[in-house]
Amino acid sequence: MRPLLVFGCLIVCLTTVASAQSTGRNMKKEAMIWEQLKVIAPGSVEDFKAATIAIDNEKYDEAERLYRAVYKKAPNFDPVMRRLGMSLCLEGKNDEGIELLEKAVETNRNTDNLSALAQYLAYPANDKQSGPEQKQRAFQLIKEAVSLPHIDDDGYYQFILGQLALDNQDLETFRKATNQLSVLQRKLRGSRVHLEACRFPLASLDL
């Protein structure tokens, strides 16, 4: 079986599990972000929450407006840099979006920031992919992201890793990613999978 077909089958398995469950984020992780923001800009927490609801419902212009308001009050808060950058990319404002995602990584080189930059650097829109140079850099970023400690283990990082491994013709890493996705699919059966809003040309997933 071809690698792309294998990967596609695993993604169908993961999305089947996800679609069967109610929509929701990892609220423990969200609460941690709110608490961090409350210390920096307590009056911006509700705007941040509303912006997150907007981006999850694909209202990217509203998400941009609300995240910008938070960003003005908390310009060094990397979660708002990341989510504002994502909102901009999803609106097609890639240059500004990538600039913010780069800034988020510079501020805090954690798994969420690295994986978001990797994703939108390589796949800026549903119908658009970047060139080999950008995909090669994105591949290095996601490999670093996966190697770091992280809270969520729902397939998001392995999905990006597998797609970029395939695009960069690294079959060994591709196989490892697909094997991990297969294991995660079995573990996640009957549980809610949430992946931050993203798009990939391989499959139309709301990750």
Q: What is the structure about, briefly put?
A:
The protein is mostly helical and 207 residues long.
Helices and strands, with pairings:
Elements: H1 3-19, H2 27-40, H3 45-56, H4 60-73, H5 78-90, H6 94-107, H7 111-122, H8 132-147, H9 156-167, H10 171-188
Helix pairs in contact: 1-9, 1-10, 3-4, 4-5, 5-6, 5-7, 6-7, 7-8, 8-9, 9-10
Structure description:
The protein is 69% helix and 0% strand. The chain has 207 residues and is mainly α. The protein has two domains: 1-21 and 128-207, no CATH class; 27-108, Serine Threonine Protein Phosphatase 5, Tetratricopeptide repeat, CATH 1.25.40. Helix 4 packs antiparallel against helix 5. The longest helix has 18 residues, at 171-188. It is globular. The two termini are 26 Å apart. Mean pLDDT is 82; it is low at 9-23 and 190-207.
* Tally of helical segments: 10
Helical content stands at 55-70%
Q: Overall pLDDT, averaged?
A: 82
Domain tally: 2
Question: Which tags fit this structure?
Answer:
about 210 residues, mainly alpha, Serine Threonine Protein Phosphatase 5, Tetratricopeptide repeat, 2 domains, disordered C terminus
